[in-house]
Structure formats: structure tokens, C-alpha cells
Structures
1.
Amino acid sequence: MRSKDSKTIEDVKDTRVWEDALSKVLARIDTTARSLEGGFPHYADTDTGRWTVSENGDWTGGFWSGMLWLAHHITSDERYRQWARHWTELLRPRASSETVFRGFLFYYGAALGDVLCADDLARNVGIEGARGLATLFNERAGIIPLGRAAEEATSVGESEANVDGMQSSALLTWAAERSHERRLREIAARHALTNLKVFVRRDHSVVQSASIDTATGRVLRTYTHKGIRDDSTWTRAQAWALLGATVDAIWLPEERPTLLAAARDLADWWLSHLPDDFVAYWDFDAPREPSTARDTSGTAIATAALLKLSAYSEDKAEGARYRRAAESSAGALVSRYLTPTFFADKRPPGMLTQGCYNYRLGLATNNELIWGSYYLFEALCVLAGRLGPIEI
């Protein structure tokens, strides 16, 4: 394993790079909003730009609404707000769906509308989603399990949990502040800290999933159901843990020191294992060969998280290191994986290519993924100075 200081971190300071990339992503948002029929964008063919949609939002629909709320925030263009309100209202029925992924659906799909745009509809829908999510909490285990309607998991129900759901604590704490329901905050704190205990290994790598004895709360086993092996470090598991720790730290000030200490360890592991070109392969244990799939979506998640961690760093040198690492990954994504606006290129501009959804199942292994697009968009907004790194 390389030292985390052995890699040269590029320094990208010209905000014109980020503004140019933002214009491409905004163009992609526009074409997507005008072309959607019958569902939420899920993943897209990067040769044609055509989206495979989910009728009810699956686990990813909130990222689409989140992009629209963010677009309104940075442009003040009213059409983005109207589009965001439309898609947020369509998410409302999911408040009663039994899945931990309501954390994604309603934090990005609704809470962002309140935080960034002070939208009453978004606030009400987000609180409904948080209240529904809280009903899944397992008091004995101190965690919110996947639930019977968790779309992407191979094993679901009250006995299975995974680190993807750690970020749910942000939705619950935001809702607790808005609704003055202390119970939501209590659940949020326990869920976040239990995720760190269950899924973060001693070397600060992350295992994705766990089976839990619902009667006692005891962890029976851990495994990685989407990685190359059950004991591997799947790229998005590491990224989700890093993202969960940094986002949850925004909303849980009492637990913030613990969350940020864990985030630094998770970030340092990520950076010491990241390829020299700053874009992760789909699994950290996958062979590092030209034919091995990358996962730009996992890289985008970690990039957004590194920007938050940088803003929280009291040590200026440490903060600068995380910021430069985020800039290097964002620069690599923008320069090599974001489709251009060249006339000769028939692909729609602003697509983040080479996202790897589920390699084990052969599902969308080289595609545009809506969550990857969201996190790249968020990171670009921060890098361009349009969004504070710890606003959301």
C-alpha cells in the first residue's frame, strides 16, 4: 500500500474550468427535464443520452429533484424551481415505502428545497419522508435496516443493513429541527454512530453490508454484496461512508467530533488507495488493468465529501490537502469523463460517463448514473463558489 503522501495532487485553481463544466451539466439537466416521460432518470446510455427511468423514483429519484433544487439555487431561474416542485411532489408517496433509502429520496429530493430555496412544499414532503423513515429504526441494534422495499439490495428486510443508508441521519436531524420532534434527532445520532461501528474496519476501509439479529441487535456477519468479493472494499461503500460521516456532521454538532475523526480516517484510506489519475475503479480490490471498469459515480461522491471535510478541517494544511484532492478528482472527471459541447460529438453535453452501477449483475457498468451526476454537480457548485461546502 502506498503512503497517502506519495501521490502528486494537482492544483486546479482556475474557476473558469468549473464554470465551463457547470454550464455543460446545466445543459444536460435542461435536456433531461424536457425529455422525461413516465418516470425519474435512473441511468443513461452514454452513446445516445437516453435514460432508463424508474416509475416511482427507485432509490435514486431524489438525486434528480436535488439537481433541480441546486440549479435553481445557483441560477435563480424559476423554471428549475417549478420542475423541482413537480418531481418532489411525485416523490411524496414514497414516504410510506419501507426502505432506508428514503434518506436519499427525501434529503436530496425535498430537504434541499427547504435548505436552499425555503420552499414550503419541499419542507412538508421532506418531513413526511423523515417520519416514515424513522418507523424502520431497530432500537436494539441502533440502526435503520434496509427494509422490505430497499430496491437495489440483494438481501432486504429488517435483518439486513448497509452503509449506503448512513446518510439518512442528515434527513432525520434536518426534520427534527423543522418539526421539533426530538425523537428524530435521537434516532439520527444512534444510526450514524452505529454505522461507523458496524461497517468501518480497523484499517478504516469499509464493508458494505451486515446481517443483524433483530431480537438482540447483535451483528451476525458483515459482507459486501456488490463488490468483487464478500470481503472486498467496494468503491461506493467507502465513498458512502465518507459522505455519510461528513453530511451527518453538518446536522449533528454534538456528534461532529466523532464523525469528523472517522471521516478523516476514511478519506485518508481513500486517497492512499486511489489510482494515480484520481478516478477509482469499481472496487478497490479489482485488478488495476485497462479493461477494469471505473466508477465515476463513486469518485464524485467522495469528491463532494472531501470538499466538506476540507471546510471542517481546523488544520489549514490538512484542509488544503483534502481540497486539492477534491480538485484533482473533479478535474479528472471533467476533463476525461464529462461529454463536451463539440458540434462533431453527437452525444448530449454534460453526461458523466463510465459510472458503474452493479458490476456483479452486469447492470449499467459504463453509463451515466443520476447520483454520480448529482454529486459532480454539487462539487462543481462548491468549486465555482456558488455553494458553501457545508450548506448541504
Note: Residues 160 and 211 are 5 Å apart (CA to CA).
2.
Amino acid sequence: MRYNPTLGEQSNGFDKQFGFGYAFFISPSFGFGTGLEFAFYSAELKLKNYEMSYDAKDLDEKVDFRFHSNISNYTEEQNAVMLQVPIMLQLQTGIGYYVMAGVKAAIPLSGSSSGKGDLINSGYYEEENCEYYISDCKGEPQNGENRWGSRAFGSFKGKRTESQEKFKKAWFVSMEMGKKWRFEDGLSLYTGVYFDYGLNNILKRKKIEELPRMVEYNSENPPNFAMNGIFNSQWEQNQNPQAFVTKIMPMAIGIKVKLALGQGVDYFAKRDEEERLSIAEVRRLEAEKQLLELNLARSEAAEKELKERETERLAAAEKLLQEARIVYEKALNDQLDAARTADVARLAAEKAQMEQEVVLLATDNSNAEVEAEPKTEPKTEPDTTHISGEWVIQVAVVLQESRAESMLNSLKQKGFNAYYKKVVNPGKLTGTYYRVRIGYFNRMRDAEDFAKTKLQSYGSWWLDKTENDIK
């Protein structure tokens, strides 16, 4: 309890604080703290020698006199208990050092003072020109026990004083720093030094003129004189009243030990670990995404290239097909021309033979009728294929339906179960075509064997599914 007395010497005491608090960290290094603390403050005043004198009234003698009091070896202890609420900011490093700073509001719970000293009280009566207890004046004992002992005069060794003090609320600026010792998850020990500096005067007092003297004579009951503590008393210097104490500014400096329970930085360690894992997962997913995008780009490029190659291949195939169609039609035309030439040659031969026969008949004058058996081409035995099946043999694709009908008739004359189908824009081709086919076969092998044995002299062929007739 820091103050500067106008008389005597003041010294500070050794006291204590205890309490509990709560710290909330918004990061591993920075947080806020509050709590409740019970703080004990004390001080001591020593007054070696002080003499005071003032006018008093002797009601028994009905006279006024001068009351004198000499105080020596007086010691007084003052105490205060306060409930403090800190509001602190805390900063701590990764290696365990911490610093706290903030303010504290303190509510006084109790205050007291107790003193002890030696007194010598006496009274000077001007009418008798005698100061009782100092001199015998009328031949009575010096200590005045017979007549003046009841006047509060005399020597009082070890006179004690007790009083209750009232204080005002206090405000402090506070700082603390030290070392944090971490034992395990959720358990740490803080050790450091702290400093609380009071900002306001906590002394509740009256006006100086209203304060009683340190030793107050009781005219109604002189032996029961009052002795007051220095916080609530005055003294005079050249008839000028002064307070012993005008201002009290509490202050504390000392060592603090705190046991910390709870998550503390472990929470941030776990959170940081989760964040690191989350970041690693995000990076992994981003890497996978980039890889997928790269693979997708490669796939799209490959697909594009494949489509371009397929387009080129189809264009080349279409060109080859057009050229093959031209060659095929030319060959077919050549075949028909050759057939016509052969027919003409056969008919010419038959005509020549018939003319020769007529000449022979005319020459021989024979009336016999010669029957000429007409020559006929050998006919292929009819094939007994099924009327339905999964496989067919395609023997031609032509541009004109009349040519398809001609080929169909030719195949049927040879005994084949032939038919043709009209197809529009097949695949990459454009236009109308006619497919000439022989059916039907349940198995691909049956169709292939049939073609190899029955169509060797016909020309090219290939196998296909019946369901693709018009696709």
C-alpha cells in the first residue's frame, strides 16, 4: 500500500495473491486472459516521537485545560484485501517464453489497521499553573493517581489501536513475463515476475478539518480516550492541521507461479496438423486433377488424331470403293459383251449348221424331217438353303436396280436363293445402292463353305449378317 506520510516513515510489506483465470488463444502465440484474483496489500508506518497539544474541557472541575500527549515508538500496520479482475493480452513464443499486459479492476473487500506505541498524557491547568502528571503542583503524587488518574493522564506502555478502513475501487496497469514449462498435453507451469501499478487514490477520507487527532481526549469519560490510526487522523504543525496520509496508491511486484490446465497450444498443434493434412489432401487432389486433365487432353488429342485418320481412311476406302465399283461395272459390262459375242457366235454357228443341214437335205432330196434338238445350257442344281438365317453371302453392290434384278434372275436361274435390298447412304457413302445377296445360313461356317464350293466361278463375295441388309 504505497503512500507518503507527512510524518513518520512508511515501509511496504510482503503479501500474496492467489486466484484462477481463463486464457483464450486465437493463435499459438496470441491470446486473451481474464479471471479472479484475491490480492492482499499491506504497509507499515513507524513514528519514533510525536508530541501534540490542544485545548480540552475538564467537566468535573468545570475548567478548561491544555491536553498534552507524547507518542513514541509507535508502529502501525495497514492491510487491505481486494478482489481483482484482470483483462490481459498474452504473447508467447515457441520456445516457452511469455509476456502479458493489460489492466486490472480491483474491488476492496476489507481494510484494517492496528498500531502499538507508548503514550504520556498530561494536562496543564492555567489557573493552578500546573501540568499534572509532569509535576506534583500541590504535593500530590507525581503520577496523579489519587486525583488525576481518572483524567487520562499518565504513562501508557504499549497502547494498542484497532480500526477498520474503507477504500475505494482501484485500477491497475499490469504486466507479467516469464517462462512456460510444458509437462504434457493439457498440463503446463508458468513461472515469472509481475508488476501491478495503481492508477488512482483508494483512500476514502473526510476533510482535513473534520479528521480527529491521533489521541483524542474524551471529556465525558476521560479514561476512555481514543487513539486513532493515521489514515483517519490529523496532526498540527504551527497550528496548521495536516493529514498523516492524503493518498494511497496500491502497487505489487513479485513472483507468480501458475498451473495451466486445458488444451492450450495442443489445440493449435492438432488444428495445424489437420490443416497440413487438409493442404496435403488438396494438393494431392489438385495433382490428380492436373494429371486427369493432362490425360484427358492427351485422350482428346489422340481421339482427334484417330478421327482424322479414320476420316482419311474412310475417304480412301470410299475412293477405292468408287474405283472398285467402276472396275466392277466395267468388268460386268465386258462380261456381258463377251456373253453377247459368244451368243452371236453360237447363233452364227447354229445358223451355219442349219444352212448346211438344209443344203444337205436339198441335195439328198430327202423328205424326212430332221428334228434338231435345241441346245440348252446345263442348269445348276437348285440349292435348298433355308428361308431364314443369321448369315448371308453378298455377291455384289450396284448403282442401278435394273442391274440388280438382272443379277438376281441370273442367280435364281442357277438355283441360288438370291435377293437384293435397297440401301440409302450406307456408312460414309452417299447415294442409293442395291445389295445382291444369297441366303440364308444359321452359321457363318455354313455360309463360307457354300460360297467356296458354289461361287468359285462367280467372282468376289463376302459374308455379312442378315440384320445388316439395309444398314
Note: Residues 110 and 306 are 95 Å apart (CA to CA).
